[in-house]
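The freezer alarm interrupted the setup, so I double-checked each line after restarting. Inputs confirmed:
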Amino acid sequence: MTVTVETPTPPEPGALAGQPTTGPSDEPISGPPMLRCAGLRKTYGERVAVGGVGFEIAPKETYGLLGPNGAGKTTTISMICGLLPRDGGEVWGDGQPIDTGATRAKAAIGYVPQDLAIYPDLNARENLRFFGRLQHMGGRELDRRVDEVLDLIGLADRAKDRTDSFSGGMKRRLNIGIGLLHRPKLLVLDEPTVGVDPQSRNAILASVADLESEGMAILYTTHYMEEAERLCHRIGIIDEGLIKAEGTRRDLIALVGGRDRIRMMATGDLRAATAAAATVERVEEASAVDGGIDVIVTEARTILPRILEVVGAAGASIRSVEVVEPDLEAVFLHLTGKALRD
Amino acid sequence: MHAALSIALKDLRQKVRDRSAIIVAVIAPLSLAFLFSSAIPSSQSTFDATFVVVDLDGGPVAQSLVEGPLAGLAPYGITVERRTTDAEARAMVDDGSAEVAIVIPAGFSDAVQAARATQLTVIGSANATLATQVAQSILAAFSDTVEGVQVAVATVIAAGSGPPDPATIERVTQASLSAPAPITTGRDRTDDRLASTPTYYAAAMAVLFLFFAAQFGVVSIHAERRAGTLARMLAAPVSSRSVLFGKVLVSLVLGIVSMAIVAVGTTFLVGADWGDPLAVAALIFATVLAASGIALLIVGFTRNEEQASGLTAIVAMTFAVLGGSFFPLSQAPEGLAQLSLLTPHAWFLRAINDLASDQELAIIAPSLVVLTTIGLLTGGLGLLRSGRVVAAR
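Predicted 3D structure, all chains:
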């Protein structure tokens, strides 16, 4: 079976390593899904934790599950990784069905839990070697791969130190390194930046972005809108155990109309300036407000110079300009009626 | 099996680094075995005391005492020495060369024969209360005998037509004194099936701490679940069965290593004699199996490490008290001795005592069967219950 998934092209390697980006591009990726889940359902007594979640992830695609705490993200990936028995639905990873008893199929998945799952009384190398052996790695192959991963996560010089001497960020990186040790085809990251300082967070995001060069698909859960925008080709917005919407960032923003707002504080003939602004192509609405002009447009950054030009020519003197673009926060608010961090 | 071995090796590495495991599994049992062996007299040693006797009377009744009850004390570890003066005897007690002095006053025999009151004096060392009590008991028994003689003589007098001649009185007296006691107390020696004190307490401490050592392996299931590493293991191509086997393997290895080190260590440290090495090895394995099974069962019925460790401590100490780890069950009331058969400790210590008997090794077969059965039953049930603990991640 071939399923086409419309996904954008991955961002340039390293593009997310600290410098601002606009996120992955919107070019589609096609191919058989690395992960396919459908109708996932989990209840605890009367409470429905996950009420029928389904999505697909293509090879090399980074898919984000964006939702607030308690939305059902961890329960969903626990079922995907075969850690939690499900009450309904199915999961296929790299073409093989996955459930709690599917021992072999789990080899395709690298799991990075939200909480640190490392041994504090073992050193970094021993932690990696142990989990590598559980993935049936051994001998020189394991040694070589452990060295590679230590380099990748920037812990090569601390390989022989017990992890209870590590900083929080270093532990987080090791936590991720264990998940990708066996070169999984799908890496599942459950809120990997929760509780880390901004510097470590940036380093972790850079590491995750670099993972695309390893050719693996990534399922990334987060409640941070900025992370989803920076890393993910497609995003599923999840709340109360259900996927409320799914698509690229542009797709999702289109759900709320996809319009930007330009607010200019100005003096002079504001009425004439407002009328002039309304004549500019792609301006949908222009109105004079107290001490300024509000303009509703599509793609504000593209036409902003033209608007400034006509407003100035109409006799207004502009003191400040603010461009407000709709984001995933607005999308979430639009879809659920509540803020993302509620 | 590969995963179970990897898990077991990882756990053992952690346990070696965690010195508390070494302390509980090796140092504590060795130390306590040494202390118990040093502090408690060996069950095979005899009572050892010196009685010094001063016979100021020299009459026939005094002679009967010295040559009768006091002369027969050597087999019980009591040496009897004679001195001629009260002062000499007191000096010996004072300087510790004798535990007890017995002074027979002048006129003692005449007083007895005339049925007059008289008194034997016992001078006991303040440091030898047991020896003094033994001496008092011997003299009390002799006094009872003398009273019997006096009754016999009085009976002869009452039965005759007149006062008996002195020869008759003497004959009756001697006959009464030399007659065997109508009732004697028998002694059935149990020493033949009782390990020496060092051996007993070495084994007792080994099995006591085995229960704490064995828990280190399986209780870590709770610890790994809390730390999230259990979920991480199970996200790999590893079955929950492999995790359980790995943990049980750690318990078995720790238990066997603990007991083996204690057995070898106490052999050299306190002179323990455990018996035939092969039989001891089989016994250790069966006991470790039982301890691991019980530890796994405890894990299956608890929700976290604290609960499991607390319950293990309660079970281990209760079994140790009931099972004879702190005092030999031969000294316990019958009810407790029967109750002790519910504990692995009692069966293990019984087998250690059996091995001291120099009988056929088959004598420990009942203990092996019971211990193995306990291990398989509790371990089987523990696997089922603990499997749920693993699945409840």
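Quick read of the result. Chain A touches chain B at residues 78, 81-85, 100-101, 103-104, 106-107, 109, 111, 113, 115-119, 121-122, 126, 130-131, 133-136, 178 (CB under 8 Å).
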